[in-house]
Amino acid sequence: MVDILQTGISGLRASQRGLATTSHNISNVNTDGYSRQRVEQDTSIPHYHSRGAIGTGTQVQTIQRLSEDHRVDALRNNHAEYERLDRLAEMTGRIDNLVADQDAGLSPSLRQFFDAVEEVANDPSNTVSRQQLLTQGQALADRFHTLDNRLLTLEEDVNKRVRAEADKINGLAESIAELNGEIRSRWTNPQRPPNDLLDQRDEKIRQLSEHVTVRVTEQDDRSLNVGIGNGQPLVTGDRANTLEVTRNAFDPERPELAVRRGDREVQITSAVQGGSLGGLLEFRNGVLDETRDEIGRVATSLAGAMNEQHRSGIQFDSGYPEAGDDFFDYAREAGVSAHRGNAGDGQPQVVIDEERIGDLRRENYQARVVDGQLQVLTEDTNEVRTLGTGEDADIQPDADGGYRFDGLILYPPDPEAGDLQEGDRFLIEPTRNAAQGIEGRLSRPTQVAAAAPVVTGEAPREDGQTENTGRARIGPPDVGRADGVMAALEEGGALQQGVEMTYSDDGTFNVTIGGDTVGTFEYDPEDPERGQVVNLSEDVEPVSGAAAEALAELDISVRISGVPDDGDRFGLYGNYEGVGDNTNALRMAELMEDTVMDNGNSTFQEAYSAMVGELGGFSQRVQTNRDAQEALLNQAKEQWEELSGVNLDEEAANMMEYQQAYQAAAQIITSADEVFQEMLNAVRR
Question: Is the pLDDT assigned to residue 255 strictly greater than 60?
Fold first, then answer.
């Protein structure tokens, strides 16, 4: 009788546990991270007799949590990658929309500015056209400001998000550490795992993976160690390290990340991958910085080229021809930041090399002192170049002590202003903030140097008539170094006296200044129609030292074409009445189509359009990868749900099964009670 009763009671208890577990599953169907649980039953120890074993019922071995590590890991990893791509797609799309916008982008302002230059070239005497050029010049500068300000606002937003992400990660790390401690204390019997605590811990780690890629390692005491970055421990057992927001070693305003372990701080910014935090840092340190660098490079190149050409012309603001001033103000010095750990107090100066402005690259550099010499490291390509005077130096100094590379000139610090110590480092950002510094410089329409300082044509006789009989022609002048040319306009200067070229049958031109012969050059073009370009300072053979000195100041190029006759003469004269001259305005208008940038391979518009195209392509790839990753994440969720998710239909069936088993077990107990009562009644009789 006891055996029957105990057997019934064991079934009753097992069914009761099954009903409780099923109820628990149903109640947590909407609980994030909950893994369904299942009662694992086994037979009780039977009673053995000579004729066999008689069963004694059932017993509950454990409440099993249906979960597999590889499915959980897949869910975490796919979450981390999806969040990275999602954040990267969001932020990159915002920049893409900005720079490619037909109204807010740079392209329309560039076109409008050079359209205004062409209007001045078409009617250089028109004050309205000149004023419109000044207006469009400032409008172009304002557009550079607007673009860079929008990018700076975006950077501030990213930096705020980075700080918020760090706070969230620290909160999750504390929770995981607490759960580790509680699980370790409660999991004393391998057959009695704290399932709900394990679910909570897995869910916290999954939430952590949304912010950053994690590496999870299980310990012997059932706790999980969680690492981020390049393996830096964030959670070790029941202790959580702190993810701190620190200052960049070169820029205190730029937040970086470090893991603090006691008194030790380990920088991990460059190692952080995956999750929304990884996506934000990848965007900031990649797309955002590169876009600001490129827009600044376009601004610097445009301002430098425009200024150089404008200085080659003359303006009549005072009524007398004077050299054109800079058209734009812009940042001629590159940004140089000292590392906070530097031992020395000196700092190099880096300026834009205006003579080689087309060599500027979208690169940042680090200058560092190694073995007493300065080295320049290109950050993107890791190219290292040594500066110095020795044979092993890659870059030798100029006469002024400057080192030229990539459109920049680096001047070491003056020993009296400060010294450099071994290991000192400096960050060089040539164009990062350049878009902020460009401004229109001119204030009056008469300051526009539309005219060239030189006029060319057939040399006249004393009566003002020309006597050339050949079919040769001389083109408009192209002024290089403007200083000497402007000096030649002064009283007694070469252009004031007149520079004339007379052709001889022997194929040479005789060059005179004020009637005195200063040199000769040969005229032998391959194609007479295209002619031959002659630079007075480089291509004329001087007849004496004084003549060479005079010619050296005349950096003027002209194209002579056609077939001249013996005695044909051409002249170059100072442009003293050139208010209506458009020669220099035409040269400025040609800058729109000149391949000024990328070592003579790109126009301003092409360089900007290449950046827009590159950014658009990257944005599209990220969006495509994000969509593909979303599909992979959904697959990982489905695979996890297949095993660990609660199915209400299945649980309803289980509940009915346990109810029936419970009722049957109760019936066994009832039957045992009836038999027992009958036996008692029989004894009483």
Answer: yes
Residue where the block lists tokens 């003002």: 464
**List of E strands, 460-555:** 473-474, 478-479, 499-503, 508-513, 516-522, 532-535, 541-542
Beta strand extents in 229-291 (DSSP E only): 232-236, 239-240, 242-247, 255-261, 264-267
pLDDT tens-digit map of 326-352: 999 999 999 999 999 999 999 999 999
Q: What tokens were used for 666? A: 């109760």
Q: Would you state the pLDDT for residue 446?
A: 94
> What's phi and psi for 257, nearest 5 deg?
-120, 145
Q: Would the pLDDT of 279 be above 90?
A: yes
- What is the pLDDT of the chain when averaged over all its residues? 92
**Geometric angle at alpha carbon 500, from 498 and 501, rounded to 5°:** 165
List Cβ<8 Å contacts ≥24 apart for 244-248: 244/166, 245/162, 245/163, 245/166, 247/340
Paired sense of beta strands 215-218 and 224-228, if any: antiparallel
CA dihedral 436, 440, 443, 448 (to 10 degrees): 170
Q: Is 83 exposed, middle or buried (0-12, 13-18, 19+ CB in 10 A)?
A: buried
pLDDT digits (tens, 9 = 90+) for 5-57: 888 788 888 888 988 988 998 999 999 999 999 998 888 888 888 777 888 88
The pLDDT tens digits of the residues spanning 62-117 come to 889 999 999 999 999 999 999 999 999 999 999 999 998 888 889 999 999 999 99
Contact, 33 vs 203, CB < 8 A?
yes
Buried b (16+ CB within 10 A) or exposed e, 144-158: bbebbeebeebbeeb
H-run or E-run covering 136: helix 127-186
Angle of CA points 480, 482, 486, to nearest 5°: 140
In the chain, what are the domain boundaries?
Answer: 2-66+648-684, 71-283+606-637, 332-425, 453-574
pLDDT tens readout for residues 576-608:
988 899 999 999 999 999 999 999 999 999 999
Tell me how long the chain is.
Answer: 685
Distance (Å, whole) CA 573 – CA 455: 5
Q: Which residues pair with 451 in a beta bridge?
A: 314
